[in-house]
Design goal:
Alpha-Beta Plaits; 80 residues; alpha+beta; three-stranded antiparallel beta sheet; 3 strands; single chain; 2 helices
């Protein structure tokens, strides 16, 4: 598992990563990540699957806490 990025924006504090979506499969989490990033919301994946059993865990999508409401609104309202 890779650690979450600790560096923040050059003009501000380090991000406080917050889960906005949990997926049973990595492919779903990657789609959510792509949607957020396409709208300008930086996001990261946190794979909680045991390495020997990658299909038995969850993959979480996280955004900085300052963007949580924006991310949730985007995910709850499908694109036209």
């Amino acid at each position: 598992m890779h650690p979450l990025p600790r560096t923040g924006r050059p003009d501000g504090p380090a991000p406080v990563w917050t889960v906005v979506h949990a997926a049973a499969q990595r492919s779903e989490a990657e789609l959510v990540l792509g949607r957020l990033e396409a709208e300008g919301i930086p996001a990261v994946l946190l794979d909680r699957s045991p390495s020997a059993y990658p299909m038995m865990g969850e993959v979480c999508v996280l955004v900085d806490r300052t963007r949580v409401l924006e991310a949730l609104h985007l995910l709850q309202n499908p694109a036209p």
